[in-house]
Amino acid sequence: MTPSPHDEPIPTEGPSDFIREKIDADLAAGRFDRVQTRFPPEPNGYLHIGHAKSICLNFGLAEQYGGPCLLRFDDTNPVAEDPEYVDAIIDDIRWLGFEPTDVVHASDYFDQLYAWAEELVGKGLAYVDDQDAETISAQRGGFGEPGIESPFRDRTPEENLGLLRQMRDGAFADGEKVLRAKIDMSASVMTMRDPVLYRIRRLPHHRTEDRWVIYPTYDWAHGQSDAIEGVTHSLCTLEFADHRPLYDWCLEHLELPNDRPEQTEFARLGLTHTVMSKRLLRQLVEDGVVDGWDDPRMPTIRGMRKRGYPPEAIRAFIDEIGVAKTNSTVEIELLESHVRRHHNAHALRRMAVLDPVKVVITNWPEGQVEHVEAVNNPEDDAAGTRQVPFSGELWIERDDFMADPPPKYYRLTPGREVRLRAGYFITATDAVTDADGNVTEIHATYDPETKGGQAPDGRKVKATIHWVSAAHAEDLTVHLYERLFTDSHPGAEGDAFDSLNPASRETVEAKGEPALADVAPGEVVQFERLGYFAVDPDDTRTLHRTVGLRDEWANIQKRKSK
Ligand code: ATP
Ligand code: MG
After folding, report:
1. How far apart are CA 101 and CA 70, in angstroms?
2. Centroid of chain to Cα 254
3. Residues with a known catalytic role
4. Atom of ligand 1 nearest to the CA of 268
5. How confident is the model at residue 14 (pLDDT cuts 50, 70, 90)?
């Protein structure tokens, strides 16, 4: 795996936000003399755009403050973890433009975590509970209502140590015993009511195989892993705010190799018209709603990548939304606007016809083929020009012709002259229709004086349409995507899947100009007048619509400011 090249450097000057203010204050006060962060995904699925926010934040801070940022796989729960996800996560982070200082696994620390558990037991701060999960949960109490202490809470440290070792050595069945911290069953923060630290689970682990039958919980593993690595600022999403007292409690009671890290929470990213939880994303894949985790309709990094979203646009989007302390759902149009802005500057222009109908130019010299010069990218002179073959039979879009047009229809219609982009002016004469009245062929004449799309007498036309020479056309399969969910906030009321858009993908057979053969797999082109399209990484004749040309974000902004 090599990191992908990026033409825009990652900004080293970060924006200001409450996390950066806190870090600056910590450094000024001497609380820390360095900054270290981490990105801690659980390898139980593919990364999505929400994770990208955390990646940009953690790697971005490390870069800004000149410290390390480790990628740590939080692989403490073997149930859903898979090495397939590990490789994909590393690859996606690199694709976003970040390089972890090191790649580590929470499972690397199982020995140390266990040793600390014995330390806690020795201090009388943890006990083995024989009750099952249901009973423990029923005893937790509620808000304003204290929990019930376990009858096993007052076991001696010696007894607990013996039992913990037996748990480790496989003397008990799954679920028969757990190790719990002995904190406070009437604590106002529920996570402090004697949380479970270890559970018995006879499951092979993708790294430690069958060495362990007990696994630490998130709460026992996370802060200590941070401390082992020397993390200073442990950033997580808001739902972990309630775990912070426990995070601190665990660290306060242990001999640590490094300064005690601090947890700070920030808002999760939500996007309109999509879901972000791995559980729902997995369901989309398993139910066959989408083709896989890399389906271009998915909010996964893989999906966005296949769809032609460039990493620069994703990072610019995340920079723009910033980090805040309240959860919000961001309009997907803002992300699309960043994607469009990037491609407008960088994408090659090409012509393709998605719903082709033939035009026969009746005064074109029989069998003649000419080439016209077309600009590759009006935003970038260095992109140069290309030669596009022009002949007497062309494909144009079906809706660029109407035999009997309504008022204000300025495209091709009998008697009307239009410009063929970079080609000639043509005037439609008549059209052939089938028994159902569908146009099957349009007849037109061209003006030989208008090559390149300019008339020497300066006369104007009201429309310019795109085209492809029929004899030279490449057959293409083009996937057109719409929102995966019709609701802007799927699942806000009821089941998210109720608002699945049955028409989220339409596939058409299209005609493209020969220069599309120059476009590399994975690259994005602008089809003139249609939008941006990404060439499929495995099949250069298949393209995915990245985004249309119209900036809907601008319209949303206008509506909002009214
Ligand atoms: P999910 O709920 O989708 O399974 P998760 O939080 O369980 O997500 P992890 O793999 O545990 O996923 O997350 C790795 C890191 O990414 C965590 O620090 C988590 O807080 C962060 N993260 C996950 N989703 C988002 C999001 N939508 N916005 C910002 N950060 C996120
Ligand atoms: Mg998780």
Report:
1. 5
2. 38
3. 42, 268, 278
4. 28
5. low
CATH architecture for the domain at 34-266: 3-Layer(aba) Sandwich (3.40)
Range 545-552 average pLDDT: 94
Q: Whose CA is nearest to atom 2 of ligand 1?
A: 277
Query: What is the 3 state secondary structure string of 204-269?
Result: CECCCECCCCEEECHHHHHHHHHHHHCCCEEEEEHHHHHHHHHHHHHHHCCCCCCCCCEEEEECCE
Q: Which two tokens mark 293?
A: 């985790």
Mean pLDDT of 175-204: 97
Could you tell which of 17, 54, 85 is best to mutate to test the pocket of ligand 1, judged by most ligand atoms within 8 Å of the CB?
Answer: 54
- Residue whose structure tokens are 């229809």: 409
List ligand 1's pocket residues with C-beta within 6 A. 40-42, 50-51, 53-54, 236-237, 268-269, 276-278
Question: Which residue intervals of 10-143 are DSSP H helices?
Answer: 18-29, 49-65, 83-96, 110-122, 133-138
Judging by beta carbons within 10 Å of its beta carbon (0-12, 13-18, 19+), is residue 25 exposed, middle or buried? exposed
Would you tell me how many other CB atoms lie within 10 Å of the CB of residue 200? 20
557 CB-near residues (< 8 Å, 6+ apart): none
Alpha-carbon span 209 to 225, nearest angstrom? 20
Tell me, which fold does domain 271-348+476-561 have in CATH?
Answer: Glutamyl-tRNA Synthetase; domain 2 (1.10.1160)
Residue with tokens 């509970």: 129
Q: Measured between alpha carbons, how far is 10 from 14 in angstroms, rounded to an integer?
A: 10
pLDDT level of residue 5 (50, 70, 90 thresholds): very low
Amino acid occupying residue 407: P
- Per-residue pLDDT, averaged over 451-472, amounts to 96
Residue 86 and residue 42: Cα distance in Å, rounded?
9
Ligand 2 center to residue 42 CA distance, Å? 6
User: Is it the case that residue 267 has pLDDT exceeding 80?
Assistant: yes
What are the Cα distances from residue 549, in Å, to 128, 290, 455?
62, 25, 28
Nearest CA to ligand 1 atom 10: 41
- Ligand 1 pocket mutation, candidates 44, 49, 51, criterion most atoms within 8 A of CB: 51
455 within 8 A of 447, measured Cβ to Cβ: yes
Q: What pLDDT, in 10s, does the model give residues 42-51?
A: 999 999 999 9
From 116, 136, 118, 99, select the one nearest 2 (Cα to Cα): 99
Domain ranges of the chain: 34-266, 271-348+476-561, 352-466
The CB density around residue 502, as the number of other CB atoms within 10 Å, is 8
Q: Report the CATH architecture of 352-466.
A: Beta Barrel (2.40)
The two structure tokens encoding residue 167? 């748990």
Predicted confidence (pLDDT) at residue 554 exceeds the cutoff of 90: no
Q: Are 303 and 295 in contact (CB under 8 A)?
A: yes
The answer on pLDDT for 2 being more than 50 is no
**40 CA → ligand 2 middle, Å:** 9
Residue with tokens 């004449």: 445
